[in-house]
Write a structure and sequence with these properties.
eight-stranded mixed β-sheet, 375 residues, alpha/beta, 2 domains
């Protein structure tokens, strides 16, 4: 049975309601809006970057039920990464209905992204989950090929590249391409509800916001000097969290979620940032120092156009109390945006007289926070 034009239009508009349950639905919603260049309703997907994030994004994409979808090409700079991802995804999706990536469409090398995207038609979807340094290069080629894109954050780590990405974003809009980015907080239902309540005036004027991510070292935090059996390029790319040019470091990759969802609560971006940070625990012992560019601690004061502030503190040290939460202070009360991880699992507003309002989607009928139930 062929889909009717009405069915296709419904699918094109799916992005308007999709993505509200989870980050996976964000990807599914973006995929559901492909430009229909031919008679087939099948969406083909190419995965560029086959590490943990890329494999997870591909799994999310193939799990959508909004229409036929198939992974047809994979690319990575390193063969072991590609092989591991292919093996894991093949177990999840054993038939060619969802996954059809023969050896001839599994590409290895730093130029493999082109070969993978060349397998797609205009309106298909490319998933970018390589280290950040390659993001603009891949995005530029996807726009040339008229492909929709889901890309993991971070996107840039410096001013010139940010300007380049913004220009590419404008080009993608001009071509009516759909682009999704892995900032999953905006697709958490509890945060969507909190945003609506704040914008409806329940907190009054936002005076200040606070965010904390205090934890042990993450990513390639404690990176040792390069061993002799690996090239300098491979060494840096494979430890991209350690180096700002390659992965943006802990701040751009991990802290961005809280900064993003608090700015979303205010519906504004900061116009000024003043920060401090430092690294105390640099020694690996026996006269060897870690060489990564991350700090042990970060503290940034953001200022918005109306003079209100957001304060963010991050820490990557062992042996200290962990804290991973965010708050919004208004003239009428306080909102707990997140009390556990990026998406929070609780939307709690408390006014000056002690009145409390609990988001229905944040706490289940057993009054157990969803974050604890989901692990």
């Amino acid at each position: 049975m062929n889909p009717t034009q009405s069915d296709k239009n419904t699918r094109r508009e799916f992005i308007k309601s999709a993505g509200r349950a989870s980050a996976a639905m964000a990807l599914a919603g973006m995929i559901a809006t492909r430009a229909y260049a031919g008679s087939s309703d099948l969406i083909q997907v190419a995965l560029i970057g086959c590490g943990g994030r890329g494999s997870g994004a591909a799994k999310n994409a193939l799990s959508t039920t909004s229409g036929p979808i198939r992974l047809v090409a994979m690319a990575d700079a390193y063969e072991d990464r590609l092989h591991g991802s292919f093996k894991a995804l093949s177990k999840e999706f054993p038939t060619t209905e969802k996954m059809d990536v023969p050896e001839g469409r599994r590409y290895v090398g730093f130029d493999a992204y082109k070969q993978a995207m060349d397998c797609l038609k205009p309106g298909d979807v490319a998933i970018f989950a390589t280290p950040m340094a390659f993001r603009w290069v891949h995005f530029q080629y996807a726009i040339e090929k008229k492909l929709n894109v889901f890309m993991e954050k971070p996107l840039t780590a410096d001013g010139p590249t940010s300007l380049r990405m913004l220009k590419l974003g404008e080009e993608s809009v001009a071509k009516n391409l759909k682009v999704g980015v892995g900032l999953m907080s905006r697709h958490a239902r509890n945060l969507q509800e909190l945003h609506k309540r704040i914008q409806d005036g329940e907190l009054g004027d936002i005076i200040a916001m606070r965010g904390y991510r205090m934890q042990g070292p993450v990513g390639h935090f404690n990176t040792l000097p390069k061993p002799k059996d690996i090239s300098e390029l491979d060494y840096q790319v494979q430890r991209f969290h350690a180096l700002l040019w390659a992965g943006g470091g802990a701040f751009s990759d991990f802290y961005i979620h809280i900064i993003d969802h608090l700015s979303w609560m205010k519906d504004a971006w900061p116009v000024k940032a003043m920060g401090v940070g430092g690294r105390h625990y640099r020694s690996a012992g026996r006269g060897v120092d870690y060489v990564d560019q991350n700090f042990d601690s970060y503290s940034v004061e953001y200022t918005y156009a109306d003079g209100s502030k957001m304060f963010f503190d991050g820490r990557c040290m062992t042996g200290a109390e962990n804290s991973y939460c965010s708050y919004v202070h208004g003239s009428k009360g306080l909102a707990i945006a997140s009390r556990a991880q990026d998406c929070g699992a609780i939307c709690h507003l408390q006014g000056p007289a002690g009145r409390q309002g609990q988001a229905d989607l944040a706490i289940d009928r057993h009054q157990q926070p969803l974050s604890e139930r989901m692990g």
